[in-house]
Amino acid sequence: MALRSGETTERVWSRTVEAWLHGEPAERRSWPVPKLNALAGGLKAGQVVVLGGPAGAGKATLLIQAAVAWLNEGLRVAWVDPDARMATVLPRWLALAAHVSRADAARFPAWWSRMQQVEHWPQERALPEHLRLWRDLPMARCAMAYKAMRDWPLTWVDAPEPWPVLAHQLESLDPPPQVVVIREWSLLPWGRIPPSERGPAIARGTKALARRLGMPMVLTVSQDFCVQPELETACASADLAGAADQVWWLDRDGEGPVPGSGWTPVRLRLLKHRLGPRGTWRGLRFMANGSFVDRSA
Fold first, then answer.
1. Mean pLDDT of the chain, nearest integer
2. Taking the CB of the first residue and of the last residue of the chain, which one, N or C, has fewer CB atoms within 10 A?
3. In the beta sheet, which residues pair with residue 281?
4. Which residues face 217 on adjacent strands?
């Protein structure tokens, strides 16, 4: 386990023993797509993983799908999103958690409100209506997912402070997160750090924070921060690419959706991997319902 800020080596030993006694999950995290684990060996404690690609390629969707899987396993996830409020993206999370379309997830609030109203009806009227509502299978799935989501160990930061303050907030979380996801890293407020110094300073700070937390950090970078799918220019700051343990590039594999199939082929390129070879993988399908499926699994 990594040494946290202001922590003694004795405390690290105590945390390690407690984790072993209470069955703390292993520090290597698995991606929900099996092939990703085969290619990259999962996510290791202290790693920084950068996921780049053009707008609409599905970077956020892939990370939400991963976060849903981690949260369902009981892992503590800190999600930082400077570009979207939680209320605006909640239907995407619900759709992926319930395995329904986004259109069905958008129907769920009205269905749930109706269900709450029926609770106050006389039993002879309520029972037939309950049966009718539960016959809507997508809504039934959403209801079960919603109940599970309320117990998720998720920390959501949708209006992050400048980087030094945000780093301190993440370090101060108790219990600490086991995975940190920062969506649109390039849109984070940088505070008083001069533009010419942001690349080196933030890259060093990101890597140092991942090591202090002792947990993997996964970052996505926005379209204007991505130039072309090469390691040297995948990030506007070469320092971020240098600090990262893995750099991925996600984009569509072809002109668009396969006619009549309901899915789009996606290409995922591993541009940098400190512990293994680079390569290209064409095994992902981006489904019409907004989820990724591993066709090679």
1. 75
2. C
3. 268
4. 48, 180
